[in-house]
Amino acid sequence: MSIHMASPILSLSNDFDLLNLLTSSPPKSSFSTHAGAGTGKYKRREAPLDPLLLAAAISSGPHVTRHHYHHHHTVPATDDLLPDTPTVTVDATMPSALASIDPPKPKYKSAQAPRSQRVKIGSNGTNENKENQREPLVGTSAGNLPQRRPRGPSLLQNSFVTSSTALSANSSSPPVVGAGPPPPSPFILSASPQTISTPVIRNLPPAPLQVQCMARTRIPTPHGPAFLHLYRNNKDDKEHLAFVIDPAQLEDNNDVDVSTFIRSASLDAKWSEDEAEIDRLTRGAYVGRLSPATHRASKPSESSSSQPSSAPLPPLVRIHSECFTGETIGSMRCDCGEQLDEALRLISSPASSSSPGRGAVIYLRQEGRGIGLLSKIRAYNLQDMGHDTVQANLLLGHGADERRYDIAAAIMRDLGLERVELLTNNPDKVKSLEKEGITVAKRRGMVPRSWQQQSHSHEHPMAGGEEGRIDGATLIGGGAAHGPELEKYLRTKVERMGHMLDLPPS
Ligand SMILES: Nc1nc2c(ncn2[C@@H]2O[C@H](COP(=O)(O)OP(=O)(O)OP(=O)(O)O)[C@@H](O)[C@H]2O)c(=O)[nH]1
């Protein structure tokens, strides 16, 4: 081993030198040791720069002090590990310098008995495992229902009951159904331990997708009132949203055809026999407009399972994917903020003089086309190095687009939106929805505002103050995004992702 330091100069040419340093008198080196150091085997270590401490620090790391350099700093032997010793996962994209100093992973040894022993049936025919007795593991299509289930919407009861979410049937807590992710694997103890002598573990098909609207509220937006719906589901742990625009629901007019209202069936459902009216009102299961003077809880029958065919026009719907950068901080690398703003504006615009605009934005938490914000930020750096959005995703080991639309379709079904006019340029969205049984009666394209502007004028879209400002630009990120990065982003969508949009002549 050879360790060289620039200053003070300490050169240890081999292990022997280091050993000498640790066990005998300090080396003759360019820095001075304490003049009065003893002469025995173990010297007093009072030098301004203690060579012993320095050697220990060099060999073990800068965290070593004279008080603890004797401690064991290497990976402990497997037997010394506590059962819950955390394992460190090294991110593949971690800088290699960091990855290379990562110690070898200790062999993890679980203190838990093998599962076969834990579910072992005792001689008296009962399961000896107390936890299993309290809370049987529950799957969706198992046939055997949980003995104790939480109060809450019936839709997800079977698939969401886990030991952490189960409450007593008498609990008055708000529903926790769907509060946690579904069980990690669809294994189920198929029969009660009291009736059989050996447990049968059956591998079930994955539970069918279910969504549940947990709450709804009115949001006044720059484009008019909207109802914000928060959904949970049994496939991912994201809180997907739906903005419903249906101002007729707020009118106090008996002539309105309530069957055309866009309402969530899972929200209007009865969640328990003894549900109090205040609980229904609080979660948004009400009709009309809430005010200190008026509040009427909805009835399950109030939401139709699908929009009636008598409805004049299919509601206008946009499926929008989350984009923190474009929507929240107004990034002009993309037009996402603008698209969200434009979608709310178009849906809110009256379809005719007699019918107000109606429809919904289904807002999916699929940041960065499903790759997540961390990867999207990395992708931006690759884009700065000359790659387009597709190449950047691929270079990071992702697909060009990792999104799915099955949850969107389930939310649309819950809202009765089974036949719609879809606001998109993206052919994947149309195909995926149709595959899920949603009828896309019509598609309306979304032309970027900067491109709309280009066809009218050669001016910069935001130039010229209010005259240059495009109608409807209201939200942060909603102002007409523009710039070379946006141009490249939009062109990549058209040229590489098949978006149905005409490129502007320039
Ligand atoms: N990976 C990646 N994702 C991006 C980038 N820029 C924007 N996004 C994401 O792209 C998605 C945009 O999705 P949508 O608004 O649904 O738009 P779209 O798929 O282009 O389809 P339409 O707008 O309906 O035509 C959002 O999830 C953004 O976060 C990028 O440079 N890289």
CATH architecture of the largest domain: 3-Layer(aba) Sandwich
**Poorly predicted parts:** 1-39, 68-103, 121-152, 154-196, 458-470
Counting H and I runs of at least 4 residues, what is the number of helices? 17
Radius of gyration: 32 Å
For the largest sheet, list the strands in their spatial order.
5-6-7-11-10-12-13
Query: Distance between the terminal alpha carbons, to the nearest Å?
Result: 64 Å
Q: Could you describe the largest sheet, including whether it forms a barrel? A: 7 strands, mixed
Number of domains: 3
In short:
With 506 residues, this protein is of the alpha/beta class. It contains 17 helices and 13 strands. The chain has three domains: 3-60, no CATH class; 116-207, no CATH class; 212-366 and 403-497, GTP cyclohydrolase II (Rossmann fold, 3-Layer(aba) Sandwich), CATH 3.40.50.10990.
Provide structural commentary:
With 506 residues, this protein is α/β, with parallel strands linked by helices. The protein folds into three domains: 3-60, no CATH class; 116-207, no CATH class; 212-366 and 403-497, GTP cyclohydrolase II (Rossmann fold, 3-Layer(aba) Sandwich). The protein is 25% helix and 13% strand. It contains 17 helices and 13 strands. Strands 5-6-7-11-10-12-13 form a seven-stranded mixed beta sheet, with helices on both faces. A two-stranded antiparallel ribbon has the order 1-2. A hairpin with a 6-residue loop joins strand 6 and strand 7. Helix 11 (373-384) packs across helix 12. The chain starts with a strand and ends in a 9-residue tail after the last helix. Residues 1-39, 68-103, 121-152, 154-196 and 458-470 have low confidence and may be disordered. Its EC number is 3.5.4.25. Residues 309-443 form the GTP cyclohydrolase II domain. One of its GO terms (molecular function) is GTP cyclohydrolase II activity. Residues 75-91, 300-310 have a biased composition (Low complexity). Residues 456-466 have a biased composition (Basic and acidic residues).
